[in-house]
Amino acid sequence: MGPDAWVCADAYIGPGVTIGGRAIVGARAVATRDVAENTIVVGNPATILRKRDE
Question: Fewer CB atoms < 10 Å away: N or C end of the chain?
């Protein structure tokens, strides 16, 4: 997991999945693929909600 990344309550991160720096995985999201840095993902399966500002 990258620096300053957040994984919210009850989120599932699959085996081998990398969470980039400053990324956010929303509550109860299911991340089965890598999450790029500065990205917010939500849902099942996790999809991009938006990019964070630098």
Answer: C
By CB atoms closer than 10 A (0-12, 13-18, 19+), residue 30 is middle
Q: What values do phi and psi take at 46, rounded to 5?
A: -60, 130
39 contacts 17 by C-beta, under 8 angstroms: no
Cis amide bond preceding 45, omega within 30 = yes
Quick check: is 1 in a domain?
no
List pLDDT tens digits, range 13-22. Answer: 999 999 999 9
Is 41 within a domain?
yes
Single-letter residue type at 47: T
State how far the Cα of 11 lies from the Cα of 53, in Å rounded to an integer: 23
